[in-house]
Design a protein that fits this description.
By secondary structure, the protein is mostly helical. The protein is built from 15 helices and three strands. A hairpin with a 2-residue loop joins strand 1 and strand 2. Helix 8 packs across helix 10.
Length: about 425
């Protein structure tokens, strides 16, 4: 981090470490509830076990990195709910640390970066995804690490190539977790190219000669790391991967993802996600004398408050157009615009997770522009978000609830049922 003194740099690192450790403790508290697989764990746990047993390919529509992480958790902690879910919690803590790093560079303020990161921790969807064996957390963590590395490269002339290389490695791992990372990789590498182009001297030809080789090198590293994440498939006893089939297998994955899907009761369109019109019940089961429920629902303070800031910025009502605000709003629009372009037959609310993370930067960027008074207001908003997290905690954490209509207290709209 580029700070003006060693003390401030050490303070930032200590705060980032504490936030990561504190969030990890929050994520793993009762992470073993429920004891049985739920929601999409039923898809990814068999795939992880197949990697351990080397039995053959399962769930071929997604790459292997995130499923390999689940397999590692099973090998280290057992084939149980702790082993399945602990990798997601670890990656979520990495995501928190990387987000704090990004916020420090963006806002140049440890206090603002801390409040931003607390909004992320309390945005609720991160919490839910940190406690389930799915692909989202490895992808999210590596994307945030990559973004941090590329921003750091922008601020570090002496070690720019080293940071860019690290960012490309992280991008390859993110794509190796889930293909949703591909548009973000294109964005990040495009920005790295643009920054190098702008900083290079001379005319257009000289700038291109300076920037293009670096872009090609980063693209090669990203692609190579992505392909390396398939190495467990070479160990299968049935239909093992071969070098000759590796590239062709990518088309098989694409066909699997593009195949016709039956309608799902929790499917939703992209324009409904910002207002949380259709959250997802990951779990709703009766266990003995209680219900266990996990509702993927965002924190209204973050989701609706952040959307309001975006709309005000786009309308022109907000006159203070800081670079940080415009950049974060653009990132949010990019993350949502992906789903306008991607030809997905069926969409789900959890596709909005990365957009919600962007909102955790949009809100602080707006209040930073209001000066010290705005930062004080942001502190109160963060406290309100924390209170809202506590309010929703029983219904997002599989906390045992009475077998009556208690759960309806958290259901504010009929579409949430």
């Amino acid at each position: 981090m580029a700070w003006h003194s060693t003390d401030r740099r050490l303070d930032a690192r200590l705060v980032g470490l504490l936030l990561a450790l504190g969030s990890f403790a929050l994520f793993v508290w009762h992470i073993t509830r429920p004891a049985a697989p739920f929601f999409d764990e039923t898809h990814y746990l068999p795939a992880a076990r197949a990697l351990i047993e080397r039995s053959g390919p399962i769930n071929i529509e997604h790459p292997l990195f995130a499923k390999s992480a689940i397999a590692a958790g099973i090998l280290l902690f057992g084939d149980n709910s702790l082993g399945w879910r602990l990798p997601s919690a670890l990656f979520a803590a990495v995501a928190v640390a990387a987000f704090f790093w990004i916020a420090c560079m963006l806002f140049r303020s440890v206090r603002l970066a801390t409040l931003s990161t607390l909004l992320l921790i309390f945005n609720q969807t991160l919490f839910v995804q940190a406690r389930i064996a799915m692909l989202e957390m490895p992808m999210t963590a590596m994307l945030l690490v990559a973004a941090g590395c590329l921003l750091q490269a922008r601020r570090s002339d002496q070690h720019r190539s080293r940071w860019n290389f690290a960012g490309a490695v992280a991008l390859g791992l993110a794509i190796g977790a889930k293909w949703l990372a591909v548009p973000y990789a294109a964005l990040f590498l495009g920005l790295a190219f643009w920054w190098r182009w702008r900083d290079a001297g001379g005319g257009s030809t000289a700038r291109l000669r300076a920037a293009l080789p670096e872009l090609l090198a980063l693209g090669v590293v990203t692609g190579a790391v992505y392909l390396l994440t398939f190495w467990p498939a070479f160990l299968y006893a049935r239909n093992p991967m071969t070098l000759g089939h590796l590239l062709g297998f990518q088309w098989e994955m694409l066909r699997s993802q593009s195949s016709h899907l039956a309608p799902h009761p929790y499917q939703s369109a992209w324009w409904t996600w910002p207002v949380m019109a259709r959250p997802i019940w990951y779990l709703f089961e009766k266990t003995g004398a209680s219900y266990e429920t996990v509702l993927l629902i965002g924190n209204p303070v973050v989701y609706w408050g952040g959307l309001l800031v975006v709309l005000l910025a786009l309308s022109g009502w907000i006159r203070q157009r800081s670079a940080a605000l415009m950049a974060t709003v653009a990132l949010y629009l990019f993350s949502l615009g992906i789903w306008i372009v991607i030809p997905k037959q069926i969409g789900f609310f959890y596709y909005y997770n990365l957009s919600a993370i962007a909102l955790c930067l949009v809100i602080p960027a707006f209040f930073q522009g209001l000066g010290p008074r705005g930062e004080r207001v942001l502190g109160w908003i963060t406290a309100l978000a924390a209170a809202m997290f506590v309010y929703f905690y029983p219904i997002i954490s599989a906390y045992p609830l009475p077998t009556d209509d208690t759960w309806t207290h958290w259901v504010w709209m009929n579409s949430w049922r």
